[in-house]
Amino acid sequence: MAKLKEWLDKSLQTVAPKTKLGVALVYLNNQRNRLIAYLEDGRYPIDNNAAERAIRPFTIGRKNWMFSKSQAGAKASANLYSLIETAKANGLNPYEYLQNIFKELPNVNDVEQVEALLPWNIKV
To answer: What is the rounded distance in angstroms from the CA atom of residue 8 to the CA atom of residue 14?
Structure first.
């Protein structure tokens, strides 16, 4: 990694920053710590496709939220979408999860019982 730093520092001094190569080198220099972290830790994904797929329903639904009758209705829709996507991210069937929490919520008496119903606390 030291050779990369040395090469990059030398290249930044010799390449004009307004050229396409110069812009690319400046970008690489600004992202160097992230690149090194990615190279040193194989757990980091190379892209964010999973996150993009997870938020896709929100981007599609965004146009529909414009036609919500109220701001509270739009917020309720966003909260429900968030709960559904979080359930999916935690390996739960969203329909079954919602059925369960709608059945259990009326019997909840404290914050701990609400937290027990959160998707990451449900055992699959």
So the answer is: 10
